[in-house]
Design brief:
This protein is of the alpha/beta class. About 40% of the residues lie in helices and about 20% in strands. It binds nicotinamide-adenine-dinucleotide. Nicotinamide-adenine-dinucleotide binds near residues 10 and 32.
Length: about 350
């Protein structure tokens, strides 16, 4: 029986990963989230009993799922100071973690990344403390989610956009460009720490660079569910941030989780792989898909004062396909259909 730690377990990626572990393993799962953004497990964990034991919430009849509402940094510091606190407090045969998934981060959408970059820079602190702990604790395996935001922004402009390949970031030979704001810098720094942890401390670490992950249960501050919700309400004129011609690589959360688990199995040296579809889709195209589902053809109203980020960001998935044989299974049309159907259920 393994022990998993999921930080940021109540956020979008964290809760989808935690749900996957809960449904596919019999392992112990310890979830930590300060709920600054995340959704309490009661709202997504399904129909399982829960009870509070001191500062911990325990889920399920077999009492193997635990939730700490806490800053991950405080949790990890406590674990360093009192290595047997989990064993005593949870009454489980815990010695150390096997798999650790580190999703706790200040993320936010474009408005946060551009509008409050110093708040996002707190990620440097969260990741530094995380890797410092990991190098002492020595879990079997670590997953660090980097981001497509780590790629040089000058490869994503209107005139020079290319499909971004893993080799466009080469930390070892210092071939790196300017990433996207403090968010991208913190991810690039996190990848560097991952490589140091692997090389100098013998930790097995996999990094992933998800592009635009989306899904039915994503927060409405993100564009895909927000656009779906407005199409479900048949908004007309239909507002879009910027011209709407900016494009992203949309990849469904179920595919993201599949790829994360594959990376955990196959990567140990701190290197990073893309998680994307390899396809550039503009926001205008997403609106067309959603309004097509809703059966109307609205007037598009560009909001040119809104932050839009880089012009085109999409992945080259050749390396992942050739080296690891992995490809996403859910097409953009199918994934958007799922998001739209959920929006219809909830918002109409
Ligand atoms: N969603 C995507 O498409 C995507 C793309 C690229 C990278 N990522 C990365 O994946 C990770 C998770 O992203 P997400 O989309 O789930 O974001 P999210 O904001 O939904 O989740 C982050 C979670 O961390 C929690 N948190 C923040 N600070 C914390 C702290 N100090 N201690 C404990 N918990 C804390 C928040 O409450 C939230 O639940 C992030 O590192 C993000 O950069 C996500």
């Amino acid at each position: 029986m393994k022990f998993h730690l999921v930080s940021g377990a109540c956020g979008f990626v964290g809760r989808n990963l935690a749900k996957r572990l809960i449904s596919t393993t019999e392992d112990y799962i310890i979830m930590v989230d300060d709920l600054s953004v995340g959704d309490h497990p009661n709202n997504w964990i399904g129909n399982v009993v829960s009870k509070e034991v001191g500062e911990v919430e325990v889920f399920g009849k077999d009492e193997r799922i635990f939730f700490f509402k806490q800053d991950i940094r405080a949790f990890l510091r406590r674990l360093m100071n009192e290595p047997d606190f989990l064993k005593k407090e949870l009454d489980i045969p815990f010695e150390r973690f096997n798999d650790v998934y580190h999703f706790a981060a200040i993320v936010g959408g474009r408005a946060k990344i551009d509008g409050d970059p110093m708040a996002v820079a707190i990620d440097l602190s969260i990741d530094a403390e995380f890797f410092y702990w990991a190098c002492q604790h020595k879990p079997d395996r670590v997953l660090f989610p980097s981001s497509s935001a780590a790629y040089p922004v000058d490869l994503q402009s209107e005139s020079d956009a290319i499909a971004l390949s893993e080799s466009d970031i080469q930390i070892e030979s210092a071939r790196i460009g300017k990433p996207d704001m403090t968010y991208g810098w913190s991810k690039l720094t996190g990848e560097y720490l991952a490589q140091i942890a692997a090389k100098h401390y013998g930790i097995s670490v996999a990094c992933v660079r998800p592009f635009s992950g989306y899904g039915e249960d994503q927060d409405l501050t993100y564009p895909v569910p927000a656009l779906a919700e407005r199409a479900a309400r048949r908004e007309d004129p239909f507002e879009v941030w910027g011209s709407g011609k900016q494009g992203r690589d949309f990849v469904h959360i179920d595919d993201c989780i599949d790829c994360i688990l594959m990376a955990m199995d196959k990567i140990s040296d701190g290197s990073a792989i893309n998680i994307g579809s390899g396809k550039l889709t503009t926001f205008l195209e997403i609106i067309k898909i959603f309004t097509g589902f809703a059966g109307y053809d609205p007037v598009i109203k560009p909001l040119l004062d809104k932050p839009v980020g880089v012009h085109s960001r999409y992945a080259n998935m050749d390396f992942v396909k050739e080296k690891y044989g992995w490809e996403p299974k859910i097409s953009v049309e199918e994934g958007m259909r799922r998001v739209f159907d959920r929006a219809m259920e909830v918002h109409t």
